[in-house]
Design a protein that fits this description.
By secondary structure, this protein is an all-alpha fold. It has 3 domains: 1-8 and 16-213, MFS general substrate transporter like domains (Growth Hormone, Chain: A); 218-270; 279-491, Growth Hormone, Chain: A (Up-down Bundle). It has 19 helices and no strands.
Length: 491
């Protein structure tokens, strides 16, 4: 899933540009490594926790199926921070904000490793998410403002590669660290990297800011944050916090009211965070809504699969991490196929059929049993990874293809926010369903939780397959390939 191009990142004025001295080749090289490493650590921590959740639960005295807040806190915080990161860099300077982001991320990691209760760990993950959310947007902004135009593409491509590697090795690395040491080390490995990063940023990263930065749309931002947080608590509060039904209903209404209020606010405000004019672009509107609902299932699976393997099927953390490799590998190899399919059959037919196929593959995990042959489980994970990766690629290109230069920054930022929000909602929905079915089927014990997992996978698959209706609103002859987008965009 992509992080934002900054919504408030106009080019520097001539006076601002002139005031900055040209950095040396060594500084440029070090800066690229800094940004790439920051992107790697941020994406790594999005997935490294998943295989360690059962070990964390045992250490903290919690049930493994009630640990979803550890994942939700990080992804929801990143979604909340995306709209403000570019504005802060423009206002305070890229070096200062990037240094602050590394520092907060490092301190948050240290606090995570020091947590003794679930609440402490969740609060620490929020701090970690605040820093992590700004690493890529601010770092990429620094690259774009420092490198000449002819070097943008190779520079951003260099930055993108570690961000693609992070999610691939995250589950396996997390399981390996739990097995040879303890879950604390999935956070402690960030500390020495963060210390070196702070020193290198202070010495080598050029500083740039925009003295003509417009006023931040604080009312609009608060409305968006209220809506995102309220809907997350409404979905997860009943299962994890025991919130009463009436309170859940109030939270749903509050979320809806906040999003509607933002729409009314954006119409009246000259410079809103996200202009509603973006929704006049049909492909963007369909792609954004499709991403929001289709990615709920895709966000749930990295949380559900390691839990299924460890809690229900008896895998170790390291074995569960290794089982995620076929999903990642098949996803990488399937990306080229989707371009051919779109050119031959069009976006609508590909997305409608593939969304249904992704939903069916999610539901197929309801057939998982302890006696299932290993080769069959590997093939199932690989096939899911292939169709899921094709879904990401098709949705991403559809959403961004017609934005053009004028709406690219704001539209890409909104798209990134939706991706992070849907990841958070995916874990929230999965956790709520799993807790509910565990209470109904397994009577709140771990003795026989496989049926609860089966029911959860079926529900997640239905949600995903149903979202294919959104892509059915596309024109049947829409085949044009996407315009070249930022190479640091990731699924």
């Amino acid at each position: 899933m992509a992080l934002a191009c900054e919504p408030h990142s106009p080019p520097m004025s001539e006076s601002a540009a002139a005031s900055s001295t040209a950095p040396s080749p060594r500084s440029l090289s070090v800066m690229l490594w800094l940004v790439a490493t920051g992107f790697f650590m941020q994406t790594l921590d999005s997935t490294i926790v998943n295989t360690a959740l059962p070990a964390m639960a045992r250490s903290l005295g919690e049930l493994p199926l009630r640990m979803q807040s550890v994942v939700i806190a990080y992804s929801l915080t990143m979604a909340v921070m995306i709209p403000v990161s570019g504005w802060l860099a423009d206002k305070l300077g890229t070096r200062r904000v990037f240094l602050g982001a590394i520092f907060v991320f490092t301190v948050g990691s240290l606090l995570c490793a020091s947590a003794h209760t679930l609440n402490q760990l969740v609060l620490s993950r929020i701090a970690q998410g605040v820093g992590g959310a700004m690493l890529l947007p601010v770092g990429r902004l620094a690259v774009l403002r420092t490198f000449p135009a002819e070097r943008y593409l190779p520079a951003l491509s260099f930055v993108a590669i570690p961000g693609l590697i992070g999610p691939l090795i995250g589950p396996t690395l997390g399981g390996w660290l739990v097995q040879i040491a303890s879950w604390h080390w999935i956070f402690l490995i960030n500390v020495p990297v963060g210390v070196v990063g702070c020193v290198a940023t202070f010495i080598f990263m050029p500083d740039s800011r925009n003295p003509e930065t417009p006023r931040f749309d604080l009312p609009g931002y608060l409305l968006l944050v209220t809506g995102m947080v309220a809907i997350s608590f409404a979905l997860d509060g009943r299962a994890e916090f025991g919130i009463q039904h009436a309170t859940v209903l109030v939270l749903f209404i509050l979320s809806l009211a906040a999003f509607v209020a933002y729409g009314l606010h954006a119409v009246r405000t000259p410079q809103p965070i996200f202009s509603l004019d973006l929704f006049k672009i049909h492909t963007f509107s369909v792609g954004l809504l499709g991403n929001l609902f289709a990615r709920i299932g895709s966000g749930a699976m990295p949380y559900l699969i390691p839990l299924l393997l460890q809690v229900a099927l008896g895998y170790t953390a390291f074995q569960a991490g290794l089982m995620m490799l076929p999903t990642a590998a098949a996803g990488m190899f399937s990306k080229r196929l989707v371009t051919y399919l779109i050119m031959r059959h069009g976006y609508r037919r590909v997305l409608v059929s593939n969304t249904v196929l992704v939903g069916l593959m999610m539901a197929s995990f309801a057939l998982s049993t302890p006696n299932e042959p290993l080769w069959m489980r590997i093939a199932q994970l690989a096939l899911f990874g292939a169709v899921n990766s094709m879904q990401f690629t098709a949705m991403n290109t559809l959403t961004l293809k017609d934005l053009g230069t004028g709406g690219a920054s704001s539209g890409n930022s909104l798209f990134s926010l939706v991706q992070m929000l849907s990841m958070s909602l995916g874990v929230t929905v999965a956790g709520a369903l799993l807790t509910t079915f565990t209470g109904i089927i397994a009577h709140k014990t771990d003795a026989n939780v496989i049926p609860a997992f089966h029911a959860t996978f079926i529900c997640v698959g239905i949600i995903t397959a149903a979202s294919s209706w959104i892509f059915g609103q596309l024109s049947p002859d829409l085949r044009r390939t996407a315009k070249r987008t930022d190479p640091s965009e990731r699924t």
